[in-house]
Amino acid sequence: KLASMEEIKADVRKAKAEREKIVRKEKERKTALDKNVLRKALKAGALYLFNERGANTSFELYRNSLEEYGAGLCFTRESKQAIMDKYKLRKTAVRLITTEPVEGAYSPTSVSAIYGEAKDFVSKNEKGAIIIDGLVLIINYAGFEQAYNLLVRVGDMIKPKKFACIIPLNLDALTKEQQKKLTSEFNTMEGK
Fold it and tell me: Which residues contact 69 (CB under 8 A, 6 or more apart)?
């Protein structure tokens, strides 16, 4: 007996659905594996640049690293509530970096004050995770050398301690010389 056209189409739809299911599961497995690899790759005492547009991978990794490191300090361009809601952060002190005069916020030119806040956080905690989201703004307002020195100082400060620092950054926003200087000094990983 030959199969009808409807039966063939039904079989094809069923096969496509099965294939999509397998592909989706493999993607989920790979994503979970990637996150697990990234999480394990974050060694205490190191600063990591994540080359990505936006900061989603960096914040996911930061959130996951809070499980291991405990306390967190987040410098960001987004409001505290938006960041807490979007990434479901806990145990995190959020500090806004903005060009507007906002109480309790940091100007992108206040590089020493940002460093001071990070230093205070490190001195008050045995271990922790820091994320600085807004480096391009700091570079644009304070200059590349000031931003670079901030990262060097934070990196040096956390080296002997149980802290990790994550810097989301779209390297395409920088000159080739600036990219080379950052990537030769700091661990660089590709985000999404």
Answer: 44, 127, 128, 129, 162, 163, 164
